[in-house]
Amino acid sequence: MFKEEVAERYKQIQDEICRGLEIADGKGKFEEELWDRNGGGGGRTRIMQNGAIIEKGGVNFSAVHGKLPESVKKAFNVTEEDFFATGVSIVIHPNHPLVPIIHMNIRYFELNEETRWFGGGIDLTPHYVFENDARFFHYKLKQACDEFNTDFYPKFKTHADDYFFIKHREETRGIGGIFYDRLKPESTNLTWEQILDFSANIGETFLPIYTELIDRNRNKEFTQLQKEWQYQRRSRYVEFNLVYDSGTKFGLETNGRIESILMSLPPQANWGYNVQPKPDSEEYKTQQFFKKGINWI
């Protein structure tokens, strides 16, 4: 069955990323919790806390099935209710303010032969934007997309800019990346197997990108001011995930596992009142990059 093949590929990607992140961190180890979902399926939640560089990181796999709630059926505009969904979801919060937050999600959803699709993406949320790092990040994503379709990167980058946008702040969550949803043969000119290969390729791109960004910045010294700014930027991450993130909403509405769904939240974030960085400060310069449409390539 195709859906079992997808789930198996995703489990392998979870294993590879966990091994690689433990090596990159040098101290932290992932703790695994196996869980079952009321209604069908389950998953493997893996969390690292208080590592050498990773303060809190989650690399989660799930494969769940059951009945879609009415609210989700309306949102998807479908009448059938027996669903299957599998995916890998990752959020890493470093303890170092000059190392960025990273998020990745690859997923497959199926109601029947006609109603099924792939979705996912990777985006980067630096506390401080380093332009060379941003260019490297986007270049590697473009490479991964171009292997399958040269239209993918520009299209998916625009989707990421639009999706990872905190409307009530009028700013993007970070420097974007790629985001795609409802990929199927009709919309991609690829077979189902090729779309699975693309999805896996995005998953396999995560580790070399993030280990490089860790290694570039982990030994830089930082100040208390930079640490406070990190907590302030984390609060924007929380606001987006709790107000706008569709994965969070889907997980909560389908009776998902709360700890796994909310593993994306940082261990600490600060909400200072009306925080405004000084003009010409590094914090102010970083803030100017949190907007749509920047061409990093």
Automatic annotation (TrEMBL):
UniProt keyword Oxidoreductase present: yes
InterPro entries the record matches: Coprogen_oxidase_aer (IPR001260), Coprogen_oxidase_aer_sf (IPR036406)
EC class name: oxidoreductase
Superkingdom as given in the UniProt entry: Bacteria
Molecular function as annotated in GO: coproporphyrinogen oxidase activity
Claim: Oxidoreductase is one of the keywords in the record: yes
Pathway: Porphyrin-containing compound metabolism; protoporphyrin-IX biosynthesis; protoporphyrinogen-IX from coproporphyrinogen-III (O2 route): step 1/1
A Pfam family: Coprogen_oxidas
GO biological process assignments: protoporphyrinogen IX biosynthetic process
The protein's Enzyme Commission number: 1.3.3.3
GO CC terms of this entry: cytoplasm
Keywords: Heme biosynthesis, Oxidoreductase, Porphyrin biosynthesis
Summary of subunit composition and partner proteins: Homodimer.
Family: Belongs to the aerobic coproporphyrinogen-III oxidase family.
NCBIfam families in the cross-refs: PRK05330.1
Name of the protein this chain belongs to: coproporphyrinogen oxidase
